[in-house]
Specification:
The protein is an alpha/beta fold. The chain contains 9 helices and 7 strands.
């Protein structure tokens, strides 16, 4: 994490001064394309670690996996790299993984793009209420995904074009309106 100029701080500590191991503990990343093991849904959520059943069940509920678990069971084998799952199901498993880790910083990199808008709204609402006091960075291409965020950095053509809450950006930035 040294390939940048300027400074990026976690609280008051410059990122370059934080070890990779410590950074790994502090940050959880959910990407658009998720790696899934040819194992059960539960093992893919827990990453083969032991967690109390209530914690796993809570992550399943908050990530929108309850219906799938009810239909297929948590022992359903996902297939090689998740071949038995849809893109949205893979993304929800990855979100459940991140919830199990419960890191202070959660980065969602276009990670709800494959779920329907109703599921997306539920997941984001669940994250908003369960991660109070923690940082969530959400990277998205749909305005509906980000409009509830406290602060939005609008990037246009690789540059920061506007910064602020949704209502302010919508009222003042034509590119954001588009």
């Amino acid at each position: 994490h040294n390939g940048y100029s300027g400074s990026i701080c976690y609280d008051t500590t410059e990122l370059r001064q934080i070890s990779s191991e410590s950074l790994y503990e502090m940050v959880s990343v959910v990407q658009q394309n998720v790696f899934i093991f040819n194992a059960s849904i539960r093992d893919n959520i827990t990453m083969f670690s032991d967690f109390p059943r209530e914690e796993v069940d809570r992550a399943i509920e908050l990530s929108g996996l309850s219906k799938m678990i009810a239909e297929r069971g948590e022992d359903y084998l996902c297939g090689e790299n998740g071949s038995g799952l849809s893109g949205g199901e893979k993304q929800r498993i990855s979100i459940a993984r991140a919830l199990m880790k419960d890191a202070p910083i959660l980065i969602l990199d276009d990670s709800v793009s494959a779920v329907d808008t109703k599921t997306e709204k539920t997941i984001l609402e669940n994250l908003h209420t369960t991660r109070e006091g923690k940082t969530t960075i959400l990277i998205a291409h749909r305005v509906s995904t980000i409009e509830r965020m406290d602060k939005i950095l609008f990037i246009d053509d690789g540059k920061l074009a506007a910064f602020g809450p949704h209502d302010q950006l919508y009222a003042t930035c034509p590119e954001y309106q588009k």
